[in-house]
């Protein structure tokens, strides 16, 4: 019998280019903030999502390093790697540990320093999440693969580039109000399609920026959550799925099968339907990911996922608010930390503490973290 | 008992492709990873082989304006990149457009 699991503390550092600080300091900062938020002195375990610790930061064994410096010496601690979905994978690991009863209280930390390399070296470092032998060796990059999806999508459905721009405009409108976001500027309508090309048709205003940051949540069993001072947020579903690592091995290029599998599993576990969701923190690394996610998750029919943005149905007060604190696009993408930022932001929404980013009457939130172009997909549903 | 001498099959099945196909999607990489700076900008494509499978590869011998979805292409062997300080060259497959007179 699995126990129900609740979030009883949250913490985050500002997202950005933190050239003045290091991986451990970011991690310690987020853990301290979460323990202070929850009024918690000690935990049993620390699970860490980090994609590029061992490569960009030249640091493996981040578990004992950060556990020690955060005052948690002795606890069970190790890193979970799943590319950009590392944070979501760490959250699921913490969820399973607490749900099983093996661990009573756990910190889930996402931490990344991805900007210590620049230019071609950073792009090569980011490309290790692709298939080394069949993609990276040909000079493929994450933006290039997103572009291959996007061009095929535009070709098959006859969609113009400008149709995608409201995903980015919405993300920046929300990120502008988030003090922890990397970008606070607004995007003007019409600029998206004219921005410099990264990988045609993916422009500078389409892809999310690589960033540094750390976020943490503290988990305990639902029955134990009442003993802590903070209003608990319950994790009512946790589901992970995989698709092929490469795009070229998929039978249907424009279907994110792992999105559909993990969303269907999570809704079944929670016993709710799509219309019960008050907001969706999806993995908006590129607008074509947002588009295909909405379609594969069942929020839009095939070929029309972009309409949710174009028809203004994704703002804080609309039908299905997306990227409510700026998403990857404006809050920034601190790679292995992103999935935990999503959990912190959804918890703020459900605690009614989202300030200028508050979604009215938010009770149920879906968060979804993705590795690659839909290869790893981890979905959680949170409820107040 | 575990038979430790049994050979593990690493290449269970071999299939030879004709090397011909068409452009299924493509992009122009303006921001290359390390090892590809000298080729940038280059065209990266998904090629739909005549046997039905997709493959990721560069489209070579072409400028970025001369390509469209559906164009016929054929495989060629090219230098992909050079690896490490000693610059060991990695060769592999790229694709180029088939000129109309050759595609008979």
Question: How does this structure look, described?
Answer:
The complex is a heterodimer of chains A (384) and B (104). Chain A has helices at 23-38, 62-69, 86-100, 119-126, 142-157, 165-175, 222-225, 257-270, 287-296, 305-310, 327-330, 338-351, and strands at residues 5-12, 45-49, 76-80, 105-113, 197-199, 202-203, 212-221, 233-242, 279-281, 364-371, 376-383. Chain A has 12 helices and 11 strands. Chain A has 2 domains: 5-117 and 211-233, Peroxisomal Thiolase, Chain A, domain 1 (3-Layer(aba) Sandwich), CATH 3.40.47.10; 139-207 and 237-383, Thiolase/Chalcone synthase (Peroxisomal Thiolase, Chain A, domain 1), CATH 3.40.47.10. With 384 residues, chain A is an alpha/beta fold. The model of chain A has no long low-confidence stretch (mean pLDDT 97). The relative contact order of chain A is 0.20. In chain A, strand 10 and strand 11 (376-383) form a beta hairpin. Chain A is globular. Chain B has one domain: OB fold (Dihydrolipoamide Acetyltransferase, E2P) (Beta Barrel). Chain B has a 5-stranded mixed beta barrel with strand order 1-2-3-5-4. The mean pLDDT of chain B is 88. By secondary structure, chain B is mainly beta. Chain B is flat. In chain B, strand 4 and strand 5 (88-97) form a beta hairpin. Chain A binds chain B through residues 120-121, 123-124, 126-127, 134-141, 143-144, 147-149, 151-152, 155, 196-202, 246-250, 253, and chain B through 24-37, 39, 42, 44-46, 53-58, 64, 69, 80-81, 90, 92, 94.
Give the count of helical stretches of chain B.
0
Largest sheet of chain A: 9 strands, mixed
Instruction: Give the overall form of chain B.
Output: flat
Q: Into how many domains do the coordinates of chain B divide?
A: 1
Work out the helix count of chain A: 12
Please count the beta strands of chain A (DSSP E, at least 2 residues each).
Answer: 11
Oligomer class: heterodimer
The portion of residues forming beta strands of chain B comes to over 45%
Q: What is the top-level CATH class of chain B?
A: Mainly Beta
């Amino acid at each position: 019998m699995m126990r129900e699991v609740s979030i009883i503390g949250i913490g985050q550092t500002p997202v950005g280019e933190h050239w003045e600080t290091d991986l451990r300091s970011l991690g310690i900062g987020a853990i301290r903030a979460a323990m202070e938020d929850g009024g918690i002195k000690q935990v049993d375990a620390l699970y860490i999502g980090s994609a590029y610790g061992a490569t960009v930061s030249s640091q493996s064994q981040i578990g004992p390093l950060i556990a020690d410096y955060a005052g948690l010496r002795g606890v069970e601690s190790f890193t979970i790697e799943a590319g950009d979905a590392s944070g979501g994978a760490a959250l699921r690991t913490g969820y399973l540990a607490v749900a099983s009863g093996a661990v009573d209280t756990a910190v889930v930390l996402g931490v990344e320093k991805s900007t210590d390399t620049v230019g071609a070296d950073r792009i090569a470092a980011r490309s290790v999440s692709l298939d080394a032998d069949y993609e990276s060796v040909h000079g493929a990059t994450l933006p290039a693969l997103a572009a291959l999806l996007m061009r095929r999508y535009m070709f098959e459905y006859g969609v113009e580039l400008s149709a995608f721009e409201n995903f980015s405009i919405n993300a920046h409108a929300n990120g502008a109000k988030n003090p922890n976001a990397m970008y606070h500027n607004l995007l003007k309508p019409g600029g998206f399609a004219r921005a410099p090309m990264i990988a045609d048709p993916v422009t500078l205003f389409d892809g999310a920026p690589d960033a540094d940051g750390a976020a943490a949540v503290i988990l305990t069993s639902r029955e134990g959550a009442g003993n802590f001072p903070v209003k608990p947020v319950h994790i009512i579903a946790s589901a992970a799925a995989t698709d092929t690592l490469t795009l070229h091995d998929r039978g249907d290029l424009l279907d994110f099968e792992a999105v559909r599998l993990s969303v269907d599993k999570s809704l079944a576990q929670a016993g709710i339907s799509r219309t019960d969701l008050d907001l969706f923190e999806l993995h908006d690394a590129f607008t074509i990911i947002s588009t295909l996610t909405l379609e594969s998750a069942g929020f839009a029919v095939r070929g029309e996922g972009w309409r949710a943005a174009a028809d203004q149905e994704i703002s804080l007060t609309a039908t299905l608010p997306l990227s409510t604190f700026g998403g990857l696009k404006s809050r920034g993408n601190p790679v292995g930390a992103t999935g935990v930022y999503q959990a912190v932001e959804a918890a703020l929404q459900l605690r009614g503490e989202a300030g200028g980013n508050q979604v009215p009457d938010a009770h149920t939130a879906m968060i979804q973290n993705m590795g690659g172009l839909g290869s790893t997909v981890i979905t959680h549903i949170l409820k107040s | 008992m575990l038979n430790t001498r049994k050979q593990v099959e690493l290449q269970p099945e071999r299939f030879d492709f004709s090397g011909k196909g068409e452009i299924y999607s493509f992009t122009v990489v303006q921001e290359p990873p390390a090892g590809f700076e000298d080729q940038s900008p280059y065209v990266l494509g998904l090629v739909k082989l005549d046997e039905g499978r997709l493959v990721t590869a560069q489209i070579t011998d072409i400028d970025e304006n001369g390509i469209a979805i559906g164009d016929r292409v054929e495989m060629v062997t090219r230098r992909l990149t050079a690896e490490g300080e000693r610059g060991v060259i990695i060769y592999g497959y790229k694709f180029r457009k088939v000129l109309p007179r050759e595609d008979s």
